[in-house]
Known about the structure:
Blueprint: H1 3-16, H2 21-24, H3 26-40, E1 49-52, H4 58-70, E2 83-86, H5 89-93, E3 103-105, E4 121-125, H6 134-144, E5 150-156, H7 162-170, H8 183-191, E6 194-209, H9 212-221, H10 233-241, E7 247-260
Parallel strand pairs: 1-2, 1-4, 2-3, 4-5
Antiparallel strand pairs: 5-7, 6-7
Helix pairs in contact: 3-4, 6-8
The structure holds S-adenosylmethionine (SAM).
Residues 7, 10, 14, 25, 28, 32, 53-55, 58-59, 86-88, 91, 107-109, 125-127, 130-131, 223 line the site of S-adenosylmethionine.
Amino acid sequence: MNSQIFSQQVRHRFGRQADHYNGHAKLQRAIAWRLARHCLSLPLPPGPRADLGAGTGLVGQALREQAHQAMPEANAQDNPSLLQVDFCPELLACNPMAKGQGGLLWDLNAGLPREIPQPALLTSSFALQWLDDPIQQLELWCSALRPRGWLALAVPTAGSFPQWHQAAAAAHVPFTGLALPSAKNLIAAARRHLQVPTYQRLRFTQPCGNGLTFLREVRQLGASATRQKPLHPSQLRRLLQHWPAGGTLGWEVVLLVGQRLTP
Ligand SMILES: C[S@@+](CC[C@H](N)C(=O)[O-])C[C@H]1O[C@@H](n2cnc3c(N)ncnc32)[C@H](O)[C@@H]1O
């Protein structure tokens, strides 16, 4: 599928479901909280900070909440907030941190926006995989950081959904999920530019009923865009027949935090 059409599909589907995103984004919320915990104690240089593919603002809000818990007496101004960058206006409209100057509508397939020159902190959670060339964009993000600037990233990887891949193979139907970057390529790209003191490959399982429950959940989240042709109803029936009974679905998520040392 043409990358522009795919990108429009991503934006449209997230936009249509924007009001429901937070209610369904349980794993995303948990990861945002974890990522924020890693950011809290980073020795950040001064400079712009942004959350890329910020959506409804789960990362920024987790950071703000944890900073407040750590130092309740601190002034909000002491802790400059993250610019909320996303190309989906409906999601940004649901993002309390994107009000006024706090949000920026921007398509990350076009690189980083001018508004964050030499960032001191870039965060991004569950967004990089939607871009046309995740590894190329990751390298660009890393190399845009100012010296001593930090990247805190979480991305679901190709190690996710083994049960779905197996069911598709057994049913002789194509796997129609989004192609995800491999953990190996993600860490290699980050290490070309950054020193990476934190690198985790996290594994989670979620109940997925008979498969249809999971596919509905993905749709409700707005995350159903894919580059593959949708399955024909008869193919879908076959896929569901091969879905493991009493099923759980596995996710692999890379979480990495790295610092740019050289100019
Ligand atoms: C699964 S959501 C994650 C949102 C948020 N980071 C979180 O953890 O809840 C993926 C986000 O990436 C954004 N996104 C996808 N492709 C994008 C692009 N090309 N440019 C900017 N944002 C994009 C979507 O609009 C959506 O907000």
